[in-house]
Amino acid sequence: MISSRNEVTQMIVSAKVAKGLTWGEVAEAIGQSKEWTTAACLGQMTFTKSQAQAAGEIFGLSEEAVAWLQIVPYKGSLPTSVPTDPLIYRWYEMVNVYGTTIKELIHEEFGDGIMSAIDFAMDIQRETDPKGDRVKVVLSGKFLPYKTY
Q1: What is the bridge-based pairing of β-strands 134-145 and 113-127?
Q2: Domain that includes residue 12, residue range
């Protein structure tokens, strides 16, 4: 008996390693972007029934595990308030350093509101560079203005 979505995430990660799969290969089989698919496999998104069944086939999951993939997850995957993983910490650092700048520029351009993390897309690519390859991350979220009432 599975008692949490985290158990299913561990099954998925273990199967991915054992089968030598990439997230891109998994995404292609599920029919979504590698960014969304990875988030879903790591327990941050809800799979549709057909997506969950495809994931189940790819990773050799039980029917019970496939059912867990279709339940709305508890979002937020960091184990601590300040991340300790070096890569994730750098994102935390970027938001600490540039968060107010991003906020000011979005408000100046769009007005008082937020960038949605629900109506959202992300693209992560490698950019070759003779000085060392670069990571290119594009985040695109719908602007949601605050309403008066």
Answers
A1: antiparallel
A2: 5-68
Looking at the structure, do residues 58 and 101 belong to the same domain, yes or no?
no
Options 57, 64, 93, 104, the catalytic residue: 93
- % pLDDT > 70, the chain: 100
Residue-wise pLDDT tens digits, 112-148: 999 999 999 999 999 999 999 999 999 999 999 999 9
Q: Which one is catalytic: 4, 50, 62, 116?
A: 116
pTM over 0.70: yes
Among the listed residues 28, 57, 90, 104, the single catalytic one is 90
- Cα separations in angstroms, 60 against 2, 8, 29, 65, 84: 15, 11, 14, 10, 32
Active site residue 93: yes
DSSP letter for each residue of 89-112: HHHHHHHHHHHHHHHHHHHHHH-S
Read off the tokens for 28.
């292609």
In a domain, 114, yes or no: yes
Do 64 and 94 fall into the same domain?
A: no
Enter the tokens of residue 34. Answer: 């590698």
